Amino acid sequence: MKEIATIGIDLAKNVFQIHGVDMQGRTVLRKTVTRGKLLETLVNLSPCLVGMEACGGAHHWARKITEMGHIVRLIAPQFVAPYRKSGKNDANDAEAICEAVTRPNMRFVAIKTPEQQAVLTLHRVRESIKADRTALINRIRGLLQEFGIVLPQGAARFPQRLLEAITDADMPLDAIGIFAALRGDLMRLNERLAECDQRIARLAREETAQRLVTIPGVGPVTATAIVATVGDARLFRNGRELAAWVGLVPRQSSSGGKTRLGRITKNGDSYLRTLFVQGAMAVIHHMGDKGGPRFEWIRALVARRGIQKAAVALAAKTVRTAWVLMARGESYRMAVAV
């Protein structure tokens, strides 16, 4: 076999497709291997460039293959699609990955460490608990309405309000028992959510996260999420690149020298984008009569463009500020009037 210079791997659960080319770009390897044989196949090859799509399990395989001496690059799936020559199948996908990874201007995804993935797993579990709690509250509201009981909105005080409602309600004992059991389920979800928040608070004691939480609109959840998701912020040349990666920059449709900007792209990590927008919305709602250039800018923006667009603009500004703190190791300094 001729020496392989570049390999593209189409990952799956059990069967992986490998496509390899030499220095001249000629195909020298096409092979399908099972999950247990992937590392065995690669360990017998000379160190080369290995490309994979950034999908489920990609970071695990990237770490294992890197340990063998190969150079591993992860590519977002949308950047691989243009290099697929014909119909979509495993062989064509592997060939497209092999071609895309050699492009000099290709954007790659940073390989996450097991510690980063552990933090993000905690965040995903927390979000799933929140979704389960919201679904349960809505279910209870709908069932209560059948008995003519409508409770005020808000998850924090809902268990107490539910207890008061079923205690004073004129309904069969069987129904009261059912609502009491549902309240028990809700209390357990609240306990699990509180446990996740405590773990996140402990993670937020890390130095970088401690600097990030000093930014208005950034709390422990947002700080730990961006540290775990981004990793090394120096991979981005500036704050705008990070904001674009999160999807908080305008979509462009420019031509003929005329610039046309539209809504935000919403590319990248939707969870991070949601956290930053929610944090910006909290800053706007709680700024009151606070003075300073930052809050004057926010008020002017709200008056000119409305709260929703102002929140998105403030979120983008916050992401850029976060990049400075992460990439340069600086501390947050509130702008002062000159």
UniProtKB/TrEMBL annotation:
<dbReference type="GO" id="GO:0003677">
    <property type="term" value="F:DNA binding"/>
</dbReference>
<dbReference type="Pfam" id="PF01548">
    <property type="entry name" value="DEDD_Tnp_IS110"/>
</dbReference>
<dbReference type="Pfam" id="PF02371">
    <property type="entry name" value="Transposase_20"/>
</dbReference>
<feature type="domain" description="Transposase IS110-like N-terminal">
    <location>
        <begin position="7"/>
        <end position="147"/>
    </location>
</feature>
<protein>
    <submittedName>
        <fullName>Transposase</fullName>
    </submittedName>
</protein>
<dbReference type="InterPro" id="IPR003346">
    <property type="entry name" value="Transposase_20"/>
</dbReference>
<feature type="domain" description="Transposase IS116/IS110/IS902 C-terminal">
    <location>
        <begin position="210"/>
        <end position="286"/>
    </location>
</feature>
<dbReference type="InterPro" id="IPR047650">
    <property type="entry name" value="Transpos_IS110"/>
</dbReference>
<feature type="coiled-coil region">
    <location>
        <begin position="179"/>
        <end position="206"/>
    </location>
</feature>
<keyword id="KW-0175">Coiled coil</keyword>
<dbReference type="GO" id="GO:0004803">
    <property type="term" value="F:transposase activity"/>
</dbReference>
<dbReference type="GO" id="GO:0006313">
    <property type="term" value="P:DNA transposition"/>
</dbReference>
<dbReference type="InterPro" id="IPR002525">
    <property type="entry name" value="Transp_IS110-like_N"/>
</dbReference>
